[in-house]
Design goal:
Largest sheet: 3 strands, antiparallel
Strand content: 25-35%
Structural class: alpha+beta
Number of strands: 3
Number of helices: 1
Order of helices and strands: EEEH
Low-confidence stretches: none
Helix content: 10-25%
Strand order of the largest sheet: 1-2-3
């Protein structure tokens, strides 16, 4: 598995394959960013910390 590190400005996007688009937006008054993910409904999208929590819980 490879690692790609990108810098994006607010409003810019990253394409993964032909069918997944991740858009980056800044949240006003915050240091956080908002990611909007447009992907086919058959793709499972999970937050990493929830997957880790479930593994520890078992």
């Amino acid at each position: 598995m490879g690692l790609l590190v990108l810098t994006r400005n607010s409003g810019q996007s990253v394409l993964i394959g032909d069918d997944i688009v991740i858009k980056v937006d800044l949240r006003k008054g915050s240091r956080q960013v908002k990611l909007t993910i447009d992907a086919p409904s058959d793709k499972l999208i999970l937050r990493e910390e929830l997957v880790r929590y479930k593994r520890v819980e078992k």
